[in-house]
UniProtKB/TrEMBL annotation, chain A:
Keywords: Cell membrane, Membrane, Transmembrane, Transmembrane helix. Residues 286-397 form the ABC3 transporter permease C-terminal domain. GO terms for cellular component: plasma membrane. The chain crosses the membrane at residues 36-56, 281-306, 334-355, 367-387. It is a multi-pass membrane protein. GO terms for molecular function: transmembrane transporter activity. This is ABC transporter permease. The keyword Transmembrane helix applies. It is found in: Cell membrane.
UniProtKB/TrEMBL annotation, chain B:
This is ABC transporter ATP-binding protein. Residues 17-253 form the ABC transporter domain. It comes from Streptomyces katrae. Keywords: ATP-binding, Nucleotide-binding, Transport. GO terms for cellular component: membrane protein complex; plasma membrane.
């Protein structure tokens, strides 16, 4: 060694690079893999619960919105509303569907009219047992407007709508025990031949519970008065509001106030919103699990500091500052909880995937939930590591070096 | 401050350790050190010897800047310890002081080379440079063929050599060895002491803290401490030629106190 200048240089501890920080922070973890696994597990369970809760509800919501997209939000239903005088029935004029179809922007119109009859499997069943099923006369392009599909058979056409032929909604078919076209049902004193069964119609659940017969046949065979009771109308998306404003006056110019207009997609949208609102209770449970996981990490860190007093003393004797010891243990805690967080995100996403797969839903794990969950683990890791790290840094190097 | 005496040997010009009236009192009134004066010059090899409870561990901690004295002045490598913050003291340790412990304090599960490199972690050297120096230091202590062995694959003597390599890798001004042979059998202990002598021959300043009179007697200078006070501080000729006496101490006439037959 050569003699140096007597004036000593200023002493400033060099900074540790990020790689070195990671190196010292992970040293304790590498030597105890089982403990790392167990204490990260607590965090993982918490995060997995939260991700799964958010993921499952988001997937259900995505499914509903997807359905809504398919059904369209541009359909309005026109029905006779309440009269100002109680007890007085209101009716839509017979010309209403025609008038409505002439409103600018209206693309298609479908009409049903209630027939005061019941549908039964045979004449032997008492008339009173309607099973909650209505008989409706249908005309125009009803399945087109509703975007309803035939499960089996065919829809009424020009010819069949004049004869005793009937198309059943899928609930009706189920209740009557009819699987497909070919059978007969008893309506208003005579048998009608089933020519088709509809698929579910989410936008018009009342159609699902109906037996639909031709307009002409209803008038001729069942004494139907010919007044429509529901007019379904579809317009271009951007014209819905304009059309809506004109409907009441057009459908019943004599008394526009007795016309009621509803938007069935609004109900579906509300349902989607509720599906999206995940269960706060479950989310709270996940939060508690996360908190318990954080306590587990803090506990592990305190034990780690106690066990590694010699290492701390050694590092101090090698020239580690208090700050560098603190950084080491906070890094270790962050790595511990970060590992748990990543595992939890993977678990939660996997659970959501399984749920989506079994329920035939789209797999949606919102990015905000993933980043939020990870940020939560890092926060918890910092908090859990701070106290043990401060304790480690405060440890007197001479005490730490003493043989235990 | 004691003025460094003039000496023809340039190697011994600079004081590395200067203690003046150092007292250390622990809470509860226990006085571990009572007014210790000690100067160690660059290039010295000395033993600090005393029975357990004599205050030699406290002296080691104070010289190693791991602890501060209650009273008195401590200067290590020219830095007045009292004036330094904890951060600056850490930097002082990383740059100027190397420690060797009785129980080695190696990090389990990582290689000898990684253990030595760990000793340079707080020096500010690059990762590659730390690896290079660690390899060189292991070569120097004769473990060039054990670089990738983990501590549990090494014998006690080899572990202590790794610890010594870790302490000297940063070329500190002062190497403090606390009972370096305490956990070793006689043969390994002897070879570790031989290594320390060799390192001293290369210019390292080394203080060996021990309770073993025999070890102290084999070193060129021995400082005897008892009840927190230095009771004798003398050099005796080391049986190797060309090892000069510490110039600030008078040559001790007569035979060595522990080994009278080894008269100079």
């Amino acid at each position: 060694m050569t003699p140096r200048a007597p004036a000593p240089a200023r002493l400033r501890p060099p900074r540790l690079g990020p790689r070195d920080v990671l190196h010292v922070g992970s040293a304790g973890l590498r030597s105890r893999p089982v403990r790392v696994f167990l204490s990260a597990l607590g965090i993982a369970i918490g995060i997995a619960t939260m991700i799964a809760v958010v993921g499952v509800s988001s997937s259900s919501q995505a499914k509903l919105l997807e359905e809504l997209e398919k059904l369209g939000t541009n359909m309005l239903v026109v029905t006779p509303g309440q009269s100002m005088f109680a007890g007085q029935d209101t009716k839509l004029p017979k010309e209403a569907p025609g008038m409505l179809s002439r409103i600018e922007g209206v693309e298609s119109v479908g009409t049903t009219g209630d027939v005061a009859e019941s549908v039964r499997r045979s004449e032997k069943i008492p008339k009173e047992e309607t099973g909650g099923i209505a008989v409706k006369a249908a005309k125009d392009d009803l399945p087109g407007v509703l975007r309803a599909r035939m499960r089996s058979g065919v829809w009424l056409n020009e010819a069949t709508s004049r004869y005793p032929a009937v198309v059943l909604g899928h609930v009706t078919a189920e209740r009557l025990g009819i699987g497909g076209p070919g059978g007969q049902v008893f309506i208003g004193g005579r048998y009608f031949t089933v020519i088709g069964v509809l698929d579910p119609v989410p936008l018009a659940p009342e159609i699902e519970r109906s037996a639909l017969i031709g307009w002409q046949a209803a008038e001729d065979l069942l004494g139907f008065d010919g007044h429509p009771t529901a007019v379904y109308e579809r317009s271009a998306d951007d014209r819905v509001a304009q059309v809506r404003a004109l409907i009441a006056r057009t459908a019943n110019p004599q008394s526009p106030t007795t016309v009621s207009v509803t938007d069935p997609s609004a109900a579906l949208q509300a349902k989607a919103a509720t599906e999206g609102a995940f269960s706060t209770l479950l989310l709270g449970l996940g939060g508690i699990a996360l908190l318990v996981g954080g306590v587990g990490v803090a506990n592990t860190m305190i034990i780690s500091v106690l066990e590694r007093r010699h290492e701390i003393g050694l590092r101090r004797s090698l020239g580690a500052t208090r700050g560098q010891i603190r950084v080491q243990f906070v890094t270790e805690s962050l790595l511990l909880s970060g590992l748990g967080g990543l595992a939890g995100i993977a678990l939660g996403a996997a659970a959501t995937w399984v749920y989506a797969r079994t329920g035939d839903l789209p797999w949606v794990v919102p990015l905000w939930a993933v980043t939020g969950g990870f940020a939560a683990t890092l926060t918890i890791g910092t908090l859990a590591g701070l106290y043990p790290a401060v304790r480690a840094a405060r440890l007197s190097p001479t005490l730490a070096l003493q043989a235990a | 401050m004691t003025t460094a005496p003039h000496t023809p040997d340039a190697r011994c010009a600079r004081p590395v350790v200067e203690l003046t009236g150092v007292t250390k009192e622990y809470p509860g009134g226990v006085k571990a050190l009572r007014g210790v004066d000690l100067t160690v010059l660059d290039g010295e090899l000395l033993g600090i010897v005393g029975p357990s409870g004599s205050g030699k561990s406290t002296l080691l901690h104070i010289v190693g800047t791991l602890d501060r004295p209650t009273a008195g002045r401590v200067a290590i490598a020219g830095h007045d310890v009292a004036a330094l913050s904890d951060r600056a003291l850490s930097a002082l340790r990383s740059r100027h002081v190397g420690f060797v412990f009785q129980s080695f304090h190696l990090v389990p599960g990582i290689s000898a080379r990684a253990n030595v490199a760990e000793g340079l972690l707080y020096s500010g050297l690059s990762r590659a440079e730390r690896g290079r120096r660690a390899a060189a230091a292991l070569e120097r202590v004769g473990l060039g063929d054990r670089m990738e062995h983990r501590p549990h694959e090494l014998s006690g003597g080899q572990k202590q050599r790794v610890a010594i390599a870790r302490a000297v890798a940063g070329e500190p001004d002062l190497l403090l060895a606390d009972e370096p042979t305490g956990a070793l059998d006689t043969a390994s202990g002897r070879s570790v002491m031989e290594l320390l002598r060799e390192l001293n021959g290369d210019g390292a300043t080394i203080a060996v803290i021990t309770h073993d009179q025999e070890i102290a007697a084999s070193l060129p200078r021995s400082v005897r401490i008892r009840d927190g006070e230095i009771v004798s501080d003398a050099w005796h000729p080391y049986p190797r030629p060309g090892n000069p006496p510490p110039p600030h101490l008078p040559p001790r006439p007569g035979p060595h106190p522990e080994r009278p037959e080894e008269a100079p």
